[in-house]
């Protein structure tokens, strides 16, 4: 999973292409984008313009969530038609750089807020979860529950393991699952989060465990794709084979 990153100038530049399709008919009317209608029977050039615009917008809309589409279209038309820009190139660069810095500051503040809230929620969850029948807690804070004990061998940290698993947040949201993909995965046990490296060494082949992993032995303050910073994670893991 990819790490969460802040807005970059390159992402911002890509986002500036969001509604390319709005101007694809090369018309001079300011209302052209609003009046055009595209269907399967439209001319090829219209469909090309619309397709480019839609795909670029869909792929980049999160980069500039508050983009003013009217001024974007005005800027695009002026540039495409060779008109004099309302701002100098230096001014435009300054505007984009300032915007990026503002978005980065907002992002950092938002992540710090979420990190604090998730840490508090996770700690409270683990306190209550640790009291449940069958749940054991290790020195690192890792909690686990044996669903099926297993009878094969246990892996070492340097081994490659084959597993099926499902990963959830404490609110029940599933963020990753080999079951959904329809096939198990293999990986070196010392190249995953610390909670997994520790937890799977407690298992035997054929076993099935539930792991409740504190954020500091999961993805920590960095978080990951679909996982906010300082998130406590819940995994159901079947150890199929130690290689």
What fraction, in percent, of the residue positions are helical? 25-40%
Structural class: alpha+beta
> What are the segments in which pLDDT stays under 50 over at least 5 consecutive residues?
1-32
Topology as a string of helices (H) and strands (E): HHHHHEEEEHEHEE
Explain what the structure shows.
- The protein has 243 residues and is α+β, with helices and mostly antiparallel strands.
- The chain has two domains: 9-86, no CATH class; 120-242, Chitinase A, domain 3 (Roll).
- The protein has helices spanning 9-15, 32-35, 44-60, 69-80, 89-129, 178-181, 194-200; strands at residues 135-137, 143-148, 160-169, 174-177, 185-188, 208-213, 233-242.
- Strands 1, 2, 3, 4, 5, 6 and 7 form a seven-stranded antiparallel beta sheet that branches.
- Strand 3 (160-169) and strand 4 (174-177) form a beta hairpin.
- Helix 1 (9-15) runs antiparallel to helix 3.
- The longest helix is centred in the middle third of the chain and has 41 residues, at 89-129.
- The model is unreliable at 1-32 (pLDDT under 50).
- One of its GO terms (biological process) is protein folding.
- Residues 158-243 form the PPIase FKBP-type domain.
- One of its GO terms (molecular function) is peptidyl-prolyl cis-trans isomerase activity.
- Keywords: Isomerase, Rotamase, Signal.
- Its EC number is 5.2.1.8.
């Amino acid at each position: 999973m990819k790490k969460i990153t802040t807005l970059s100038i390159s992402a911002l530049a890509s986002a500036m292409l969001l509604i390319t399709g709005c101007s694809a008919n090369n018309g001079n009317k300011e209302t052209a984008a609003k009046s055009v209608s595209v269907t399967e029977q439209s001319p090829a050039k219209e469909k090309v313009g619309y397709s480019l615009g839609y795909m670029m917008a869909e792929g980049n809309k999160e980069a500039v969530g508050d983009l003013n589409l009217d001024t974007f279209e005005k800027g695009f038309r002026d540039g495409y038609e060779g008109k004099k820009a309302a701002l100098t190139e230096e001014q435009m660069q300054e505007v984009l750089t300032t915007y990026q810095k503002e978005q980065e500051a907002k992002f950092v503040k938002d992540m710090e807020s979420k990190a604090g809230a998730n840490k508090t929620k996770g700690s409270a969850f683990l306190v209550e979860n640790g009291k449940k029948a069958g749940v054991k807690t290790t020195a690192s804070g890792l909690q686990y529950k044996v669903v099926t004990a297993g009878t094969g061998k246990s892996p070492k940290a340097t081994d490659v393991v084959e597993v099926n698993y499902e990963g959830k947040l404490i609110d029940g949201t599933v963020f990753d699952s080999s079951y959904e993909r329809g096939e198990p995965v293999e990986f070196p046990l010392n190249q995953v989060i610390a909670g997994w490296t520790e937890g799977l060494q407690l298992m035997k082949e054929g076993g099935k465990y539930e792991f409740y992993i504190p954020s500091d032995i999961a993805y920590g303050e960095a978080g990951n794709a679909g996982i906010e910073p300082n998130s406590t994670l819940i995994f159901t893991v079947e150890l199929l084979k130690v290689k």
